């Protein structure tokens, strides 16, 4: 029987509550004893699925399971201790320096990726832009090479077992001291520079080019500009491009859409109007009898494409009806109305 509850339910460790519940329901239906009468293997699997769901559906139990693994129930049974105390207790219970808790504590700093966001305007997307970004990274501490520990100038008695080489575990039984591995001597201590964390906050700067035509949500990768690890390698920096909404234009891929007001007589008779683009104004021919809301296209006046060339500008016509009429205008419109009657 597997002890990995995530594997039992077939979800990853970062799965949310909804995904866990969905996976449980699917497996519970599959292995339910009523649907598999006499099938001992299905019955055992059903119990396994229920046990996994009982833990992963409870935030408190799941947190302990994520921290202590198979021994999470022991952590739950130990009262009056915070997680720091529990870590010390379970180091003793699970084998001293070989326990996963001690290994995790002593694991050297690893390279990490960093993700940032930058906001760009539609004009910058059209032309391309540059960004100078300042950000924080947790680099491996140079004083301890990212291990969180430094060697003492002179070894001394172990502070945990006081030189005895043995300590009592949670059941009162003697065992080798996990700090000195039974030697009674201490040669390492927490690094005073990083206070044992193995990492130090570092301010970094980078300049990136935003290519013309990039889409909202796209990532720019800058290799080696993430957090550095003890092995000398560094993670990558990812910059997510966010598009700032434009007050006039709507974007549809490489095409842009804009609304332009046209006098009612021009819409009826036809003519030309000036239309603003991202790069200045151009003339647009209005055909006779153009309707309100009708879309006209200005080729190659849209957004610069990341593949080269430009999209189109879609001009949505808004026919402007006057709020008042002169006597001459009224008479002329009445004549038109009589002619159409």
Could you characterize the architecture of this molecule?
This protein is of the alpha+beta class and 341 residues long. The protein folds into 4 domains: 5-77, DnaJ domain (Helix Hairpins); 114-144 and 197-243, Sandwich (HSP40/DNAj peptide-binding domain), CATH 2.60.260.20; 149-190, no CATH class; 250-340, Sandwich (HSP40/DNAj peptide-binding domain). 28% of the residues lie in helices and 30% in strands. The strands form 6 sheets. The chain has a 4-stranded mixed sheet with strand order 10-11-15-14. The chain is elongated and about 110 Å long.
Short description:
The chain is α+β, with helices and mostly antiparallel strands and 341 residues long.
Strand count, sense and closure of the main sheet?
A: 4 strands, mixed
Shape: elongated
Integer tally of domains: 4
How would you write the strand order of the largest sheet? 10-11-15-14
**Radius of gyration using CA atoms only:** 35 Å
Q: What is the CATH class of the largest domain?
A: Mainly Beta
> Helical region count?
10
Q: Spans with pLDDT under 50 lasting ≥5 residues? A: 78-106
């Amino acid at each position: 029987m597997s002890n990995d509850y995530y594997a039992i339910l077939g979800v990853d460790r970062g799965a949310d509550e909804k995904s866990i519940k969905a996976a449980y329901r699917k497996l519970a239906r599959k292995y339910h004893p009523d649907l598999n009468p006499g099938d001992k293997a299905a019955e055992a699997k059903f119990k396994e699925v229920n046990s996994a769901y009982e833990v992963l559906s409870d935030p408190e139990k799941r947190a302990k399971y994520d921290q202590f693994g198979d021994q999470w129930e022991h952590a739950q049974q130990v009262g009056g201790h915070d997680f720091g105390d529990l870590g010390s207790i379970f180091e003793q219970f699970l084998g001293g320096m070989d326990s996963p808790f001690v290994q995790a504590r002593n694991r050297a700093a690893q390279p990490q990726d960093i993700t940032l966001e930058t906001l760009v305007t539609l004009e910058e997307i059209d032309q391309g832009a540059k960004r100078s970004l300042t950000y924080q990274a947790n680099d491996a501490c140079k004083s301890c090479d990212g291990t969180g520990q430094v060697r003492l100038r002179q070894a001394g008695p172990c502070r945990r077992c006081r030189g005895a080489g043995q300590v009592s575990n949670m059941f009162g039984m003697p065992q080798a001291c996990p700090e000195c591995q039974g030697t009674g001597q201490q040669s390492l201590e927490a690094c005073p520079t990083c206070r044992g964390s193995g990492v130090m906050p570092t301010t970094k700067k980078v300049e990136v080019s935003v290519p013309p035509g990039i889409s909202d949500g796209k990532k720019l990768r800058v290799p080696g500009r993430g957090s550095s690890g003890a092995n000398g390698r560094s993670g990558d920096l990812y910059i997510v491009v966010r598009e700032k909404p434009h007050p006039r234009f709507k974007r549809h891929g490489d095409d842009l859409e804009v609304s332009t007001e046209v006098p009612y007589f021009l819409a009826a008779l036809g003519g030309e109007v000036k239309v603003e683009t991202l790069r200045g104004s151009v003339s647009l021919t209005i055909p006779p009898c153009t309707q309100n809301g009708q879309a006209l296209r200005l080729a190659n006046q849209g957004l610069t494409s990341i593949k080269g060339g430009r999209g189109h500008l879609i001009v949505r016509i808004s026919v402007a009806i006057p709020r008042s009429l002169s006597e001459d205008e009224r008479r002329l419109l009445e004549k038109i109305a009589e002619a159409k009657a």
